TrEMBL record:
An example Gene Ontology molecular-function term: gluconate transmembrane transporter activity
Keyword Cell membrane among record annotations: no
Keywords: Membrane, Transmembrane, Transmembrane helix
Pfam families assigned: GntP_permease
Identification of the protein by name: Gluconate transporter
GO CC list: plasma membrane
Domain of life: Bacteria
Species annotation: Chthoniobacter flavus Ellin428
Transmembrane segments: 59-89, 96-114, 134-155, 185-205, 225-246, 267-287, 307-329, 350-373, 393-413
InterPro entries (UniProt xref): Glcn_transporter (IPR003474)
Length: 416
């Protein structure tokens, strides 16, 4: 690459990453701060602890993260549930990674495997796979056991070996509430889930049954326009933050000056995180434009193995090279398209899942998610490699193992 092209590519990568994440992370941090200062995080944590018991809060966090992660981006889910994880860790005197890693595992599994996340959705479009079948396989068969093993079970093994204190971007969630009185459990859950619900509305109107006119009435087109607007992650987070100024602010006895101060105070730690993530996005774009990913993909294309395993391997090599899970799945799908066209017996839905799994392997310094997890839980780089990278690789390896097992059993059901 020419030196100027390197600079231009870095700038484009920063711009693209910030366009997607800057407002979401800023607004998510504000929502988390309001949740903490109102005492809402403690209220939700106490409710979860009572329901699941102290010994199973990591399972509770994984389940919540997996469900919420179906409809929201990884970064949004982490910022929504992170304050609750810190409050749970404080209340139960549990190491933060024991709860934080299951949270990350649940969100990441959903992000990598389940439509409507952009990676799997792009692969479905390229390969012509069935959306419903892909969702069914990922949501009912592959996703839950993967999240269970790589979340609570792996975290219980990793946590004693990596000591992390209460620090980082999420530490404000463990602060003593400032509000005169705390919000109720119901309104706290509703405020947290509000952006999720708004994004689900957007997802619903983009489904074929709605787009093809299954919902009668002249209002359909206008409703879809507004649903797509309010369901955009940035707009949904903005609506939730504005609502939290009432539910976690005025309704709890906080005045406008306190709400403004909390909103401003939480943005200083987020600034450093944004700069690091932006640099990661720029680095990823330079690697992508340099042709490293294409070169690795060409190597993978000449290997003779199961198409599902090949798709997983190509997506994994791209992930290591360029960092972006979405780019990895999209590129791998384009490379695997001739294989699918040549062999009609390839299960396209399982191939989509195998590439989604491969796109999660070995998250490291060229992945924005790596830096967000590192900064949020206050870890250094070696600690993040020993925890987050291990969890991501565990998700990738266990997913492809399950997918290959399912694929080998399908002929038995067909014959039956």
């Amino acid at each position: 690459m020419e030196p100027k092209h390197v600079v231009d590519a870095f700038g484009e990568g920063v711009a693209h990453t910030m366009a997607q994440l800057a407002m979401i992370i800023g607004l998510g941090t504000m929502l988390g701060k309001m949740l903490a200062e109102s005492g809402g995080a403690t209220v939700v944590a106490s409710g979860i602890t009572r329901f699941f018991g102290t010994e199973r809060v990591d399972y509770a966090m994984m389940v919540a993260a997996f469900i919420i992660g179906v409809s929201v981006f990884f970064q949004v889910g982490l910022l929504l549930l992170g304050p609750i994880a810190f409050a749970l860790a404080r209340e139960t005197k549990t190491p933060i990674l024991r709860i934080g890693l299951p949270l990350a595992a649940g969100l990441s599994t959903a992000h990598g495997l389940i439509p409507p996340h952009p990676g799997p959705l792009a692969a479905i479009g390229i390969l012509g796979a069935d959306v419903g079948k892909t969702i069914a396989w990922s949501l009912l068969v592959v996703g839950p056991p993967v999240a269970l093993v790589t979340g609570p079970l792996l975290a219980r093994w990793v946590t004693p070996r990596v000591k992390v204190g209460f620090a980082g971007l999420g530490e404000s969630a463990s602060a003593k509430p400032s509000a005169p009185h705390t919000p109720g459990f119901g309104i706290s859950i509703f405020t947290i889930l509000l952006p999720v619900l708004l994004m689900l509305v957007k997802t619903a109107v983009e489904l074929p049954w709605f787009a093809n006119g299954a919902v009668a009435g002249t209002w359909q087109a206008d409703f879809r326009i507004w649903a797509e607007f309010i369901g955009d992650p940035t707009v949904a987070m903005l609506v939730a933050v504005l609502f939290s100024f009432w539910s976690f602010g005025r309704a709890c006895g906080l005045n406008s000056h306190q709400i403004l101060r909390f909103s401003e105070d939480c943005l200083a730690p987020a600034a450093g995180v944004l700069l690091v993530i932006a640099a990661g996005g720029g680095f990823s774009r330079v690697l992508n434009d340099s042709g490293v990913g294409k070169a690795l993909a060409d190597v993978g294309g000449h290997l003779h193995m199961s198409p599902l395993l090949l798709g997983w391997l190509i997506a994994g090599m791209l992930r290591v090279a360029v960092g972006s899970a979405t780019v990895s799945v999209q590129t791998a799908a384009s490379i695997m398209l001739p294989f699918v066209q040549a062999d009609p017996h390839i299960n396209k839905e399982l191939l989509v899942l195998s590439m989604g799994a491969g796109s999660l392997v070995l998250s490291h310094v060229n992945d924005g998610g790596f830096w967000l997890v590192k900064e949020y839980f206050g870890m250094d780089i070696p600690q993040t490699l020993k925890t987050w990278t291990v969890v991501e690789t565990g998700i990738a390896v266990m997913s492809i193992t399950l997918i290959l097992i399912v694929n080998s059993l399908l002929p038995l059901f067909h014959h039956a």
